[in-house]
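Internal ticket #5521
Category: modeling
Description: The requester needs a full-assembly model to guide mutagenesis choices. All entity lines are attached below as received. Residue total reported by intake: 734.
Assigned to: D.W.
Attached entities:
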Amino acid sequence: MFSFELYSKDPKSNARRGQLRTNHGTVQTPVFMPVGTNMTVKTLDAFDLTSLGAEIILSNAYHNYLRPGDVRVASMGGVHQMMAWKRSLLTDSGGFQIFSLKGLRKISEEGVKFQSHLSGERHFLSPERVVELQRNLGSDIMMPLDHCIELPSEKQKVLEAAQRTLRWLDRAVKQPRNEGQALFGIVQGGIDAQIRTFSAKETIERDLPGYSIGGLSVGEEKNAMMEMIEVCTEILPHDKPRYLMGVGTPRDLIEGVYRGVDMFDCVMPSRNARNGTLFTSEGKVNIKKAQYSEDQTSLDPDCSCHTCKNFTRAYLHHLFRCNEILGLRLNTIHNIHYYLELMRKVRESLDQGRFSEFYRQWISSQV
Amino acid sequence: MFSFELYSKDPKSNARRGQLRTNHGTVQTPVFMPVGTNMTVKTLDAFDLTSLGAEIILSNAYHNYLRPGDVRVASMGGVHQMMAWKRSLLTDSGGFQIFSLKGLRKISEEGVKFQSHLSGERHFLSPERVVELQRNLGSDIMMPLDHCIELPSEKQKVLEAAQRTLRWLDRAVKQPRNEGQALFGIVQGGIDAQIRTFSAKETIERDLPGYSIGGLSVGEEKNAMMEMIEVCTEILPHDKPRYLMGVGTPRDLIEGVYRGVDMFDCVMPSRNARNGTLFTSEGKVNIKKAQYSEDQTSLDPDCSCHTCKNFTRAYLHHLFRCNEILGLRLNTIHNIHYYLELMRKVRESLDQGRFSEFYRQWISSQV
């Protein structure tokens, strides 16, 4: 039920054009996946996402596990049914959220003990339970529990985390899934090329339907991140999708595609929208600034989204200043549209065999 | 440019069926006007309101005066242009908001001094300035500054406020307005039938295009409010629209229509929505309650709104518990739809000459 078809490769870069097929339809790649933490991409419903052209979204296993609970979600037909989302759904493993928790969290070979950030209640998740959790959520693409680390970390610690991630993966793959639910492998290894290479080679030995590149965009230099992406995509098989987890800025996406990444997710467009930072064809706009209070132009003259077609910068500024929820929503619609539209342009340039040209022009326009 | 046509009167009550015509189209009455305080009915944009079937909305002069400022709104083409609303717009005078302010506010014959609830900055509004303000906003229907009082108040105070309201009205009508902008008169008089009678008779002497019933739903008994409505509609001319300001519950609307009111506005549907209190054909639902956590039915099986057509009570409960903005929006869509649909049913029953029957059935269904 799950498949990936590679349509074409860019002759002058590692960029790829392809298509995922899941239980819930097809997804054109390279693709950006908006993040719907609590079964909503904040301020938007499933119909808004469909209107925006999203073909796949990400939801967080950790949040759904705590609220409303994966067993409850399962009893209500899964995340798709509950949020009325008809297209593809990827869930993360919760690993990254749990490793980011400030309070108690204790890692053992068995799994992860942690306290809920909501109630302080104690929980335990094993690699097996994390697969069961995502099975309950009804994910089309699921992630295994991985051992995430802070950067910088000592080499030995990075290696041990990568090794544990592999052992946990081997336990995860044995856990039953529903028909068509694809479990990806996650490559770890911090910013150490040797450990990344080890992790990538070992992970592909497991012959999984797709591969994630984890543990990046956690504070390291951009160059280091790009180098690690290159190390991974060099090793990962061409006939399987590559997913760069939690990345990133529009530029990160373009650079990732250039290096052979097919899938991205990030809270940046939605979170920035709620902070009033908007992505436009002419650079970032901070809509809070007084200079926009009487600006009757649309946010981005090159944009065809609902917000840009119908409202002025002055109105968005006014709504933001008044803390009006509608402002957060209109901003989110625009930023998500910006990311999805950027990827549509990337795919179009790949289809037309002119991605390298698009890449150069886009990068130079950002300076 | 402004007109009111009375289509029909219910034979067994004072209910009326009519149509307003403004610079921005027609409005079928009786009508409920959603409240868009800061140029947004909270969580909704103008297109949402159009989809919901709203033909007229109310915006608050006081809030628009403070932020972004009426002169700025005028320079940007008015409220219609700024919020992309193509249909009719009524604005209040700001009087009620100013009289509700806790801090400094000082009334003199000249006008009202007050401090902004946002910045503490001092302001002064006269009856003349209040008309200019609404002219700047581009309102289709504007309200004169009126002297609002608390209830209960001494008879002498109630009478003086009603008299001042009349003197302020006489100043307001002399202030220039744009073509087609209708200025209503406001009947005051607390819950004193004698003063209400005086105020109504004096106000209609000014021969205005419509009449508002102000100063009700401020804590008095329901019976007193209903009696005052009856006193006013008895006196107000049949060929002019009657607007009951700031009212009320669904039942208040039905009772108001029964007594001859044509127009209503209230924050109740939108504010309750944000508190999780939802109006349904089977009574109020408090979506926060744990009993809805696994309720896979739609909020109201009799409702055709976006929320009820597509989502379950369990999803609305989940969104509310997670403080998700989408929950507030889906709740608002439903509650506004409920109010607008109620008025559509009222108009339909009037068109079919069976309003009294509808009224009896509806009231008895609410017990």
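Resolution: model delivered.
Comment from assignee: Chain A has two domains: 8-266, 275-357.
Ticket closed.
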